């Protein structure tokens, strides 16, 4: 029986990917006015995936992956940063535009309200640092929805390591088998949660999965949903 439902934040409840693309487009338009920003959005997405993975594996710290993204992106225009401070300043300027584009998915709040209305307790596990994630919760009026919010930056180990899932279950005083975890990343979220003994749910919103991804999800015992509207019925039984 599921008693606690735990959520990822970025690209699960919060439309991170769209904010990223809108933010970098605005930043490029300001800093490189002769460049067609639309032609570089996919490259920025790819650099985030590349360097965020390096953070997850411990190769870079959280700020280090930001600097690496800034350096590699601007290198594509023949630009370099002489210092870490300069790279960080560029990234902070991008973040101003990113923040302006923040929005929740339309199904986020209805799902949370439905779960709470059925008596389930809610929490969050998010990879990131509190100073970056908490403003999202506050600005988007999510903070009051969750009993506990655990960030990898504060805990010290990111998903998919089992320890962060087990730590969060301990905060709720529930067995992992009594908790479900929902996120948009197959390995980091759904399979990571399954490895810790939770019910893992892969939220696959806007693309068709590869056959090997579906096979991995099935082999791990993770569930696959296409919208958060499907979640209340799933965790209810």
Describe the secondary structure blueprint for this structure.
Layout: E1 4-7, H1 16-31, H2 41-56, H3 62-75, H4 84-100, H5 108-117, E2 121-126, H6 130-139, E3 148-151, H7 152-155, H8 162-172, E4 179-183, H9 186-195, E5 199-203, H10 211-220, E6 223-225, H11 231-236
Parallel strand pairs: 1-2, 1-4, 2-3, 4-5, 5-6
Helix pairs in contact: 1-2, 1-4, 2-3, 3-4, 9-10
What do these coordinates show?
The relative contact order is 0.15. This protein has helices spanning 16-31, 41-56, 62-75, 84-100, 108-117, 130-139, 152-155, 162-172, 186-195, 211-220, 231-236, and strands at 4-7, 121-126, 148-151, 179-183, 199-203, 223-225. Helix 6 (130-139) links the parallel strand 2 and strand 3. Helix 9 (186-195) packs parallel to helix 10 (211-220). The chain contains eleven helices and six strands.
Annotation keywords:
alpha/beta; Rossmann fold; 2 domains; 6-stranded parallel sheet; 11 helices; 11% strand
* SS elements, strand count: 6
**Count of structural domains:** 2
Structural class: alpha/beta
CATH topology title of the largest domain:
Rossmann fold
CATH class of the largest domain: Alpha Beta
Strand order of the largest sheet: 3-2-1-4-5-6
Give the proportion of residues in helices: 40-55%
Q: Assess the beta-strand content as a share of residues.
A: 5-15%
Mean pLDDT: 95
* Major sheet characteristics: 6 strands, parallel
Shape by Cα distribution: elongated
Low-pLDDT residue spans: none
CATH superfamily caption of the largest domain:
HAD superfamily/HAD-like
Terminal-residue CA separation: 8 Å
Specify the number of helices: 11
What is the architecture of the largest domain at the second tier of CATH?
Answer: 3-Layer(aba) Sandwich
Along the chain, the helix and strand elements come as EHHHHHEHEHHEHEHEH
Radius of gyration equals 18 Å
């Amino acid at each position: 029986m599921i008693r606690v439902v735990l959520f990822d934040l970025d690209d699960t409840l919060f439309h991170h990917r769209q904010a990223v693309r809108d933010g970098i487009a605005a930043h490029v338009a300001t800093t490189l006015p002769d460049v067609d920003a639309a032609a570089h959005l996919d490259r920025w997405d790819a650099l985030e995936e590349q360097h965020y993975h390096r953070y997850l594996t411990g190769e870079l710290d959280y700020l280090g992956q930001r600097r690496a993204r800034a350096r590699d992106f601007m290198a594509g225009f023949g630009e370099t940063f002489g210092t870490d401070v300069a790279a960080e300043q560029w990234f902070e300027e991008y973040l101003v535009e990113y923040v302006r584009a923040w929005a929740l998915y339309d199904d986020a709040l209805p799902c949370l309200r439905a779960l709470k209305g059925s008596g389930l307790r809610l929490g969050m596990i998010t990879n990131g640092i509190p100073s970056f994630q908490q403003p999202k919760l506050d600005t988007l009026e999510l903070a009051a929805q969750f009993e506990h919010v655990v960030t990898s930056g504060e805990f010290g180990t990111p998903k998919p390591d089992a320890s962060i899932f087990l730590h969060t279950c301990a905060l709720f005083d529930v067995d992992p088998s009594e908790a479900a975890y929902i996120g948009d990343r197959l390995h980091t979220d759904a399979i990571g949660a399954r490895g810790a003994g939770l019910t893992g749910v892969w939220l696959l919103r806007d693309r068709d999965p590869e056959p090997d991804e579906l096979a991995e999800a099935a082999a791990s015992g993770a569930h696959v949903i296409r919208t958060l509207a499907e979640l209340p019925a799933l965790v209810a039984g």
